What does this fold into?
Amino acid sequence: MNWDDALKVYDDIVGACEGFERKGKNMIYTSSNGYMFTLLNKAAEIGIRLPKDEANTFMDTYNTGHYYSYGAKMKDYVLVPEALWSDKNLMITYFEKSFAYVNSLPPK
It folds into this structure.
């Protein structure tokens, strides 16, 4: 998927979630409590930050791996396979889980 189409998908998912909004113009992300928790990188890939156990389960369940942005492995982030993007309810669930996770961390 090209970057513009990926941005539309990302914005659609974020727009359907409660309590947060998309930020950034060049680097697209969501954040709360001083932490980013979802990202759309330049390669048109979506990453979600999850607790370590949930991240491992996600990677096993959806046959994916860690998320990289600008060549760096993002700690606690998983790469969301493009095949999941069309399952809006599933994506909303994971975006909201990620939001809850960063809000459970000490504020930055």
Notes: The helical segments are 3-15, 52-62, 88-104.
